[in-house]
Structure formats: C-alpha cells, structure tokens
Amino acid sequence: MANITRHGPFGVTDPFATSDPLDNLFRGFFRPVQMDKDMPQIRMDVKEDAASYAVHADIPGVSKDDIHVSIDGNTVSISAEVKKNFEQKEGETVLRRERSFGRVSRSFALENEIDEASANARYQDGVLELVLPKKVAAAARRLAVQ
Fold it and tell me: How far is it, in rounded angstroms, from Cα 65 to Cα 113?
C-alpha cells in the first residue's frame, strides 16, 4: 500500500500532520483565501509626463457599458463585469469550458491628484485607455493683514 505524504504550500512536508481524524478535519480551514486563478486579471501600463498620466488597461471580452472608472483624489479604481454567455443548443455536448465570468477590479494610487473634470476614457479592442490630467496645485496666496 502506498504512503500518502502531506505537503505544505512551498512543497515542504507538513510537520503538523497528525493521525487524529478530527484534528485533520479542521487543518487548512483557517488558511488565507486564495484568488481564483481562472478569473481574468486587469493588466495595465501607466505612463507619466509633465501634465498627465496615461493608463492602458487590458480588459478583453467586456462591453464598454460594463466598465466603471472612478477617481478620488489621486486614487483610480477600474472595475468591469464579465458576463456569462454560455449558450448550449439541444444536442450539443460541452467538451471544454475555459471562459470565466464575474467581476474584476483594480485600484491604484498616483503621486499627484487627478483633475476629474478633464479626465477621459476610451475603450477599443479590449484596451481601456485613460488620460488623467494632473490637478494644478493652487498657488500660495498672501493675505493682507487689516
């Protein structure tokens, strides 16, 4: 009969494995939550010049109506909903299903605050392009003492 060896997350044999079935039942119950690897990720490039930031984010397979961008000071949040579109006709058998659906999001902070009023977004061929102008810092004003 083959021996079964328990391995930890880094390929190391689990030193805490016991023969008590009740103890082994709860082992791993409190492990950190792992992200779903099948869910698509938002991959992006961020560039900066003197006046603005340019963001190119890959969000394939999403309708532009399902993409939401919010700006709060210097924090930008992008979220998208990938909708389920699995049609199966009568007599068909699904041999493989790899496309996923659900909600993805990503937030990041920039060094300067963003001028929300003049920011713009464009979505074409699965790429979201954001132009985020930097907010002009208010000049110091000298007050006259009366």
Answer: 26
Q: What is the rounded distance in angstroms from the CA atom of residue 146 to the CA atom of residue 144?
A: 6
> What share of residues in the chain are helix, strand, coil (percent, to 5)?
10, 35, 55
Global pTM reads 0.63
- The tokens describing 121, both together, are 């977004």
Right CATH for 32-85+97-133 from 3.40.50.300, 2.60.40.790, 3.40.440.10, 3.30.190.20? 2.60.40.790
User: What's the rounded Cα separation, in Å, for the pair 100 and 91?
Assistant: 23
Query: What pLDDT digit, counting tens, does each position of 94-137 carry?
Result: 888 777 778 889 999 999 999 999 999 999 999 999 999 998 87
